[in-house]
Amino acid sequence: MRSAYVILAAICVLTAAGCYARGGNGISVTGQIEGVGIDAGSKVGGRVREVLVQEGARVQAGAVIVKLEADETDALVAAAKAKLAGAEALLEKLKTGAREEEKRQAEAVARQAEERFRMAVKGARAQEIQAARATANAAKAQRDSAEAEFKRIEKLRAGNAASQQAFDVALHTRDAAASQFQAASEKLDLLIQGTRSEEVAMAKAAADQTAAAYEEIRNGARIEDVQAAQAARDSAEADVKRAEANAREMVVTSPLDGVIESMDIHPGDLVKPGAFARIVDPEDLKLVVYVSAAMLGRLGVGQTVTLTTDAHGAETFQGTIQQIATQGEYTPRNLQTKEERVQQVFGIKIKLNSANGKLRAGMTAVAHFSAAGAETP
Length: 377
Description:
This protein is an alpha+beta fold. About 45% of the residues lie in helices and about 25% in strands. The chain contains 8 helices and 12 strands.
């Protein structure tokens, strides 16, 4: 549409007739009033849950016009908040340090490991060896007694003088006593031989490890660990803000007071990220006309322009020059002669309001420029 206006304006410049009405007081240029609108939509898209307005409806700024399904975005918000809570808890723990009871517990574990290492180095005491020898001798006596009793029952059983149950009990008692004697003998041997070098080394490593853990708890977290936890917390907070921003995109609101010019969506539709509704302000109108280069010296941004329309006859309206194009349009590439330069046209954007509803987008209007230039407000 705009290209047609530009071509038409260029033809009018060449012919000095039609769109330009020249007179002793200046010229008049015809254009079409356009509405200024804003596109509304969602940055993330989704499935339409509810459409609250239709095309042609008047809406106020901030009014909800469309709702998208938000189950997924709500879940992402909850997950991000949970991650943030964990990061904040870890950071607070590092900053606060271990509790006194945790320090005492770590100290006790370290002492126990140290004592086990010392015991491994020293080996068994004489009293422990004597006690183990006595236990082994007692176990041997019980084994021998159980063996003798089993042989006696075995002979009686052979002559049917003892029951099968008595034989089974004697057999079980003999085997149990033999096992107890073997275990006591092995324990005595270990105490006599002492702790192996490998076990001593393992006890030493365990003592060193628990001592280091205790020192770490007592001294608190390193500054590098605190900084890393702080960075993780900040990252989690950013994730929450991002998730909440996406969740807000599930509710599309009008960015201004205006009229729904176009919106063709229905519940259940899948919409891509981007705009799907256009809202125009009936009071925010513009008129774009094209004038020759010779007129530019008489015009300036902010000047007042008198306008008329076919719909309202001789009644005049006021507009303000908002923008003057910096480059001409539809002209020869090289303007060498004065005759060629008069073919150059420049777009002029005039801002106006509806004049209490009298002016509307789509109406044809005439901008009147005086020979001395437009009026200055």
